[in-house]
Amino acid sequence: MENQNSTNRISTFLRKNSVFVIIAVMLVPLLYTGTYIYANSPNPEGSIPYPSNVDSESEGFVLIILDGVGNDYLINPEQMPKVNQHRDLKSATLMVRTGPLTLSATCVSEMMTGVPNSPINGLRNFDLPHPGGEDPWLLAADDPRYNVAMVGSYVMGNIYSDKSNITFENTFKGHSDYYEGDNETLDIAKQWIKEEHFNVMAVHFSGPDKVGHSFGLGSEYDTKISKIDDQVAELVEEIPPSWSVVITADHGMTEFGIHGSAEEETRNVAAIISGPDIDIGAEAKSNQRDLSAIMPLILELPFPNQLHGRIPLEIFTHDQDEKEEIENWNWKAAYQRQKFVNELNGVEDSNLLPDEPNWDAIIIEGEFSRTSDKIVSLIVWICIAVIFILASGLNFKYVHENWNLLLGFGVIVSLFLMSHNFLSYSAMIPRAIGGLCAVFLVGYSLQTSGLNPKVNDSKIKAIMSFLTYNYKFWVILSISLLLLLQSLTQVVVSMLLSYSLVFSINSGFGTDLNNRNHMSNEQPIVSKRAKVGTHDSNLVIIWGVALLAFTFGSIRLWFALIPLIFILLSIIIRNLRRDATDLEKLPVYAMFTLCLYAVLFVHRRILGENYVLEAVKIGWPENLVTLTLSAILLCISSGVAVFVVHGKTISNKSKYAESLKFAICLNTCLIAVWLSNSIIDWLLISAIGVFYLFAIFSKIKSNALNAFRYSFLALSMQMALTWGAWAAFVTVIILSCCNKIWKYFHDNMDTEKSFYNPRFILSMAVFPWVIWILWWTLLGQVNGLQTCFEGLCPHPRELDPGSVLVRGGYVGFRENPPLLWMIFMASSPIIISSCMILYRIVEEEFSPRPYLISQMLIILGCVSILAYSPKYPRLMFSLTWNVFFALLQILFIILVILFDKVVGSKLFNKPTLVSTEGI
Hints:
By secondary structure, the chain is of the alpha/beta class. The chain contains 33 helices and twelve strands. Strand 11 (785-788) and strand 12 form a beta hairpin. Helix 2 (18-37) packs antiparallel against helix 14.
């Protein structure tokens, strides 16, 4: 009995203090692994003077970078005959291996600066700055003998455009420009050579990479390679023979046009090097940073200590004495760098001596994935498992009776970690698992399966019960497909996505996951309440699966909309059967329509466009057609909002009048967007500000109706003015309908706020999350599916802040807006909308505590697998943005609570909304 009381006390303590427990566990990987991954690596300063008794005959230097051209194309005479003719007659060849981060910016940075990438650089592909310190290009720019120029994409521009004495011309025309930018690059480079002003140049052709991303390595890519072959040959023909030329690539590509991680085909490139002092026909192996080490030798520059490269002496014609001098010069810099790195890590190496070159003592590749980080990750997951067992109230004397549950939990955690550790084998498996996690959370917590049992539904329910719960069927089907396809990844991804669809359909039209005994002889999954001192194994399973789903890390947000669409459809059918009023049907119809559009039209890589994002862009009208369409959308949203919000409280005549006034206000903002006049902008901004003040004043005076009307009007106008008509249309409908949808769920489920009622607790954790995902998706900020080797797969960059539209930042300053103003105008309606959506839901008997905890669990899951992300940039992207958006949700919760305290509405000053037995 004493043991049971102790267990109950521990369980109660953990649930009551769950927020602090999660923070404590989260800090371990965040402080140890996070600081390593998200920090810039320091580098040594200084350089080694060029040896005085070594002469170079080169009078200039040109680096030609071909974006996305692996060695199987670059040194293939059938693919690039002209370049290979130049290779055979005038050049030496290096077989080059890139670093583990095979993004364009990270590869170009290492190739030109010689500084190894930090893990954080995987997040900076589109804005990677210079690592600092000296490099050969900066030293050449400061040398009076040389004039330095660069032409090509933004990648080199981000690194060097702000450096003095370096001329940069940006020829990047967009990710869908396959030829124009490269044509301009060639013209500018040829002009520079003819003018004889620049004698150190970098020329970047980015077109092959874009073609590969769009079409893979197919016929379109072959055509582009043939064109690049002609262009490079034309450029080389113009370069004086006394100059040195390096023709290379930043990275290769997979068959499907993918790069970024450490796949072998993306890391294997080549370098064709010609000019004075080059041994024609020589071949050697090197690392990509070694290309930067060649430049100081050719141009007689100092060798930077931070340059982590070794000169490939095999391809040079210097005599043996000069080669020894060059190697000693190179070694002095390598020694200084390695000594610096060893001191940072507290390492002593007796084999590292300043005057005796020992290249085996030099670490070639940076330590991206540290074993210690993975050990920390494993310890954190063990802690999560132990805390979960204690918090679930499991008495350890019953552990031996339920060893299978604990073993299953451990196996699932192990599989989750392995799926991230072996991303080089398949990046799609963890994404598909993440999709299923989101489907389970929404499908289980918001299910409507048991609300409308009908005789004519029995066959459908029987089929869905078989497909959802007959796991032997899925095992047999998986084995059969494996024998047929001979591909484990295809089978795993296909089965996970198929089951996600089945589970989603079941959540709306199948059997109730909490009560399956009406379809079979099985016991309910969750009993009403377990006896004190014991535990219900099914209850533990539900909470355990929910915990694993939230903490998976690679959870895919768009998948949450799939069960939602079937749940809303089932509510529509139920409303038709029970003759619900039009006012009851309207919010469900409206939300279902938005959800359907969000589910079907966000697949850019399948449809060719993200048509939701296109709708957002159309919301800034550029002609009469888009102006008319935008005006119609705003009128529709005005009518829906007024009829849903007011319901039966006012007459239909008053509703029409209110709708008209609302539509006029929104369309006034639309006209302002069309006119793009700063004076008109400021008049509307002032009006919006006044409406917000009226709303706050009304809230303080406890006039809830006027507070909502004014704040709703102000926000809707602000969205129309800054994000356009479509964004306003979506926001108005979701904001007016979300609380009605929650009330429907609330009124049709057991609302006991208890640990023994996981569905209700999880519904409060999931509902505002899925509504926010729907809203964010409809703003064009979420990507859905793509085609891949496995068939249909989740998009690699599901959340892509790079697609956030900042056109609203020009409101009020149409010519030259200040940066802070742009940030404020683009972000403020997002923050206010998110807070108002949450506030509307909270007003309907909703506790934000489960939502807060769920978002903290998402962060915990992400930081606990950071250890596996350094060499997989897309995983780092995914984890970082999942953490960022979860932090935003937590911020919104805090802002809502603070606002409630300030205005004194006492929304949260109620009795405990969730008992200490809750979460």
